Amino acid sequence: MAGVAAALAEVSFRSLVTSFLLISASQVLFFAMGWIFFMEMLYRDYDVRNRAVRTLFAATFAGACTLFELIIFEILDVINRPCRLLHWKLNLYFMLTNVIVVLPLYQVYIYLLGCHPKSPLYHHRVKLSVFAWSIWFYCFWKISNPFPIGSEHVSWFSVESGIGRVGVIGVTLMAILSGFGAVNSPYSTLFFFLRKVTATDVMLAERKLLQTVEMLYSKKKKLLLARERHAQSLLQHQSSASGMSRFMTRIVSSIQSGFARDDANIGVLQTEIDALSTMLFVDLDDLNVEFQRVHFSYTWKGRYYNVLGHFFSIYCLWKVLTSTINILFNRVDPVTHSLNMVVHWFGLELDIEVWSQQLSFVFVGLLVVFSIRGLLLNCMKFFRAYSHTLSPDNIVLMLAQIMGIYFLSTVLMLRMSVPLQYGSIMTEVLGHIEFNFYTRWFDVIFLVAAVVSAIIIVVSSQYQKQRDQESLMWTKKTSQLHL
């Protein structure tokens, strides 16, 4: 905190009050936005009554948005430099303390609080929370050993030591999400990749679902009747039974041999039936979604989105190519570098410094908007997928921690995306961090994630086509049998 005291000494009282009023007002607005998102999106489906959890989520959201606000202030030169430096340090200390100490410690405490009141875990929850956090902090601190993230002779309580380690986790997460998005977004937005689903396919899938559910419950009913009334008698008179009786005996015997003879097996069978029914419902829902997309593709709005999808696909391809070039030639500051190339190729007379400022502002704004939107959408998917197996309080705290790590790492990446003259305070605050390492690390993980995602999408699409063909053949065959 010595850096905060030094920055505070350089600020005049009037400038300090003005900057604090401006930043505080924006933080209140960001906090309200985070609270509204929590109440409208997360709390709408899942009950989180712990007010501290809501407050931590909204505060983390506000801190992340304030980081981006300070970056924009840096480019536009809003507020004098000493005040910006002070707010940078205060906000970074808050975010680092939140994601490294407060959120993981409270996650463990909330988990232990959910144990039975007579359990030893419940009675010693404070001590166990501190012990578990100590293990987490040790692993977190040792994460820097294989990576050249910065100077080795820095204080444990410095911004550099904290954000350097957070950056390794966050940049890896960003690269994986970006690599997957660069491949999956064109696949999802372009109508060229749509499955050719017709109304007949949806109707056949509905018929298949109904037939399968009837068959499964009929099988369960027969099994229960066989176990309760006829299993023992059929086994005792197997030798004297008729041909049809021997056939039924073999069916019942095979069913009974596949399951243990206790009440728990009925639950296992019920679970299997429910799982298969759920899978069929999901398949039917996917078909309906694809059918609606095919229908939407013929509308004017759908064609407009398809055109936008082509432009976005070009951008994704450009991103993959530039990542490859960055790895090979170690290039940074893509805004100024690209602007220099355009001026050189077309012989334009432009003030590169002025235009790089404006383009950097636009680039940062777009990246901020899409980063927040993309992360929150992924958070929603994660929350809905695991809300039935984990405590809602723990999930929200986990999402808040991921959000904080993600946006702290975005600051590192944005520092390499703006010209040096517009990121001098960021460089000063972050210390001797090796920015080039994070850029190259992002590009490498991004390319690996893009390649792996492309392979997964190709394999899954082929598997889906095969499943569609088998499902269609099975449905037609069963329809003929019923006729």
UniProtKB/TrEMBL annotation:
It is a multi-pass membrane protein. InterPro entries: ABA_GPCR_dom, Golgi_pH-regulator_cons_dom, GPHR/GTG. It comes from the Eukaryota. It is found in: Membrane. Keywords: Membrane, Transmembrane, Transmembrane helix. Residues 297-461 form the Abscisic acid G-protein coupled receptor-like domain. GO terms for cellular component: membrane. The keyword Transmembrane helix applies. Residues 157-223 form the Golgi pH regulator conserved domain. Pfam families: ABA_GPCR, GPHR_N. The chain crosses the membrane at residues 20-43, 55-73, 93-114, 126-143, 163-183, 307-329, 359-383, 395-418, 438-459. PANTHER family: G-PROTEIN COUPLED RECEPTOR 89-RELATED, GOLGI PH REGULATOR A-RELATED. This is Golgi pH regulator. It comes from Caulochytrium protostelioides. The lineage of its organism: Eukaryota, Fungi, Fungi incertae sedis, Chytridiomycota, Chytridiomycota incertae sedis.
